[in-house]
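U., I forgot to send this yesterday:
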Amino acid sequence: MISVRRRGSARLAAAVLASGLVAAGVMAAAGPAAADDAVPSSGGATATLDGLKIFDQAVINHDGGKQKVGAGLFEMTVDGGGTLQTYCIDIHNPTQSKAQYQEKPWSATSLHNNADAGKIRWILQNSYPQVNDLSKLAAAADSGTLTEKTAAAGTQVAIWRFSDQAEVEAVDPAAEKLADYLQKSAQDLEEPKASLTLDPPAVSGKAGDRLGPITVHTDAASVTVSPDPASEATGVKVVDKAGKVVTSVANGGQLFFDVPTGTPDGSTSLTAQATTTVPVGRAFASDTKSQTQILAGSSESTVSATATANWAKKGPIPALSAEKNCAKGGVDVTASNQGDEPFTFELDGIKHTIEAGKSETVTVPVKEDQAYDFTITGPNGFEKNFSGVLDCKTAETPGDQPSSEPTPATAGGSSEGSTGGGDDLAETGSSSATPVIAGIAIALLVAGGGTVFFLRKRKSTAAGE
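Result:
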């Protein structure tokens, strides 16, 4: 077996996040409440972890000791319909029972700085279950007879050697030979494209304009587009570039929010949804600190994404979205301003002013394993909330022996207790080593510079009367 580098000591729970956005000036009294508080989604499949279903045993070698774990395929049930099969790419982190997972780009997971990420995708495409002719797979690996369980175990072991740089071996001799074959044969492949995304996920502008474009990226043949039902009362419609109402769109299609002149200041959203096979190699992460997964197989599954629009008659008109940025160790908050006055906010003591027609991305620093929960507010009742857990690294070493059952899913990633479920829900990693993550609310208050000017102008006029 090819030797690999060992990891250091286990990670500790993160400290409280000290940074945040604060008001840069006095806010005007809120105008009409935002029509919708939907949070722009990165898009793709959302699923619930059902457990480890097809597996055999493996042994992790660390610090002179050995730790036996289950190694193989997990299953997830997709929200809206469908089933996913996944392998773990975070060997020392436990699963959380019934954890919710969201399809993510590699840049938002521990694969962001992993030079071997492309080799993991090659393994997925050239082993079980993508190659379900086990006699053919055994012949290629010269492993001897493989069963579904040993093929899954060998595949998982090979993946762990690249995802975690772990010293791990399959207990079954044929599974171990398969793991060695896959590790030695793996080639670097590109990251697969998302099943469905909307770019950008948030737009803004003035009433009377078409707000957009929002470009649809998907591997589905067709995507259904549904506006927020509340927008019907305001007359806001989702249209194409020519102004025609859109109910479905293909890859590369562009969407606009058509806001009639005179529409009161407000916001709305749209939902894009499709049924497709999610590409093998897509990452799946959870905000309950459950081990990161990578897709090995997909049935026809429901995928979706949301986009929001914000409009006003005058002043700063913000559009906001957020995405984890593992390379920078934080959350990227992208703010654009399609108004006619500057949009100003402060972050970590630094003032940022976005001129009319411009945009800027600011990274909110978040420590590894840190929970974040921040709400950004602005003029005319504008409000967006973003929350999650920054999970950008694999756990380095386990603590105690792993439980045969997953720890319960809790919002903060608590590791106390366990739930029944039998061997088919065996976990990898140690539940006692899971960091206990406290939820942290960070108020990120944003005020437009033009709004401050308006208040000052009113006061000056009154003084002169």
